[in-house]
Amino acid sequence: MRPSTALRQKNRIQHLRRSARRTTSQWRRTLTYWLGAVLVGVVAVGFAGTADWAARARGRLLHWDPYVMLVVVPAGLAFSTWVTRRFFSGAQGSGIPQTIATLHIENFSIVNRVLSLRIAFAKIVLTCFGLMVGASIGREGPTVQVGAAIMHGFSRLLGTASVSARRGAILAGGAAGVSAAFNTPLAGIVFAIEELSHSFEQKTSGTMLTGVVLSGVTAIALVGNYSYFGHTDVDVPLGTAWIAVLTCGIVGGIAGGSFSALLIRFSKGIPGRIGALIKARPVAFAALCGFVLALLGLVSHGATYGTGYMQARAIIDGSEHYPASFFVLKFIATVVSYCSGIPGGLFAPSLSVGAGIGGWIEQYLPHTTPGAVVLLGTVAYFSAVVQAPLTATVIVMEMCDNQQVTLALMATSFLAFGVSRMICKHALYGALADRFMEAAHSAAPAPIYTRGSAAPAVETLAEQVEKKD
């Protein structure tokens, strides 16, 4: 055999060996991400079960004596705020702003802290504690941060060096969290594209889609293939029934835009002596918020406590009718809960407020099916709050297992989005995330974010760094 032929064969063998090693490494990485997505589904189901247990515990407390909440809620919110600020800074609020921010922060030491498994565990425990003591919060937003933290943890375990691959894992985890929390796989995908990343990159699309599917399948395997709000068999035919689209879109848009504007304004701080007092005494302020929540709970006979899921479902299926005061009080309770600084999301309370708005409007629109008007009110307010009309449409459509109203839902959602934009120029989660990145930028010497436009976040990353200094 000539030397040149032997050299070619040797090079070919070396190439095959390198290809085999590369394929093995790729499969190991893929299987690890799959395991992470399954774990997101398991954790999301466990989170939901624990949140339901917390709601039942609160119900037993209310049954024993409703007035005990005048002590329980202030003490509970004060304790949650103290624990969060003292030991788990970064766990405050929804969790979606933090997840969005980590997709744009370049300093991964900060990302590692925000998406640590320690913070994820605290997010679950403190959110459930908040639900037990009566805060008007939800678990879906926190599940997004928890899912992102789990997938980010697996990315670190694999020693991923590529920034795009790390961000792809975070994006996949957040989308998987939505999918498992609501049992809405399509909504998880749309949410990741529309809200979390604002783009769809080919490099990360496979990881995201696989994560959503596996987490959703895991949730179904554990709790069954259910619809969040059950099945509704209603329709909104073209014609006079579409007056409900205009009405719900405008009313829901105004209410949701006002809600977002209030939270963004509070995240920037209240000027004057009151703002300085709140900043100096956050735990006392949380206790005051708790006392306000307890008063709202007494006035509403307990309807404003917790996620509002039971009330929303009852309004949608027509088994209960609540006065207009319900959604007004629930609106206030959610604002107060979020401003207190405790961990907890906005998805479920927003759906509850939206259902209350729809239930109030439907009595004035006898020519439209009541259940359909409630769904339109739900999607209108939710779309106006998150300013993500496609996500709102798909979530409500999948949660009620009804494709007949898709066109009406989408029209209402986009109308509410437009109205909300006139009141609140920046999307809530985007605005809160930008605040978070600004705090990180002021606390770290290296450049941290590359995002061009302004968006969300509240809190205390800068304070955390100052404490360490």
UniProtKB/TrEMBL annotation:
The keyword Transmembrane applies. It is found in: Membrane. The keyword Transmembrane helix applies. It is a multi-pass membrane protein. The chain crosses the membrane at residues 31-55, 67-84, 169-193, 205-229, 241-263, 283-303, 335-361, 373-397, 403-424. Keywords: Chloride, Chloride channel, Ion channel, Ion transport, Membrane, Transmembrane, Transmembrane helix, Transport. SUPFAM superfamilies: Clc chloride channel. Gene3D superfamilies: Clc chloride channel. It comes from the Bacteria. PANTHER family: CHLORIDE CHANNEL PROTEIN CLC-E. This is Chloride channel protein. It comes from Asaia siamensis.
